[in-house]
Amino acid sequence: MITEPAPHSSGTSSRWSVLAILLLVLFIGVRLPNLGSPLLGRHDFRQTQTMLTAYWFAQDGVTLA
Fold this sequence. Notes:
The chain is 60% helix and 0% strand. The protein is mainly α.
């Protein structure tokens, strides 16, 4: 017997939206106090290299040619 799938209710969609917003606020709240921190730590070379790559991508754009 083949049955049709039940349509998604709008309540489920709004719950996912609320969850996504709450997670975004949580992640921003955790990360925001450390945004001004210097690039120091156990992996300072990798962090600095990643920062430089992001800087040059922002300055010159990304070309994959």
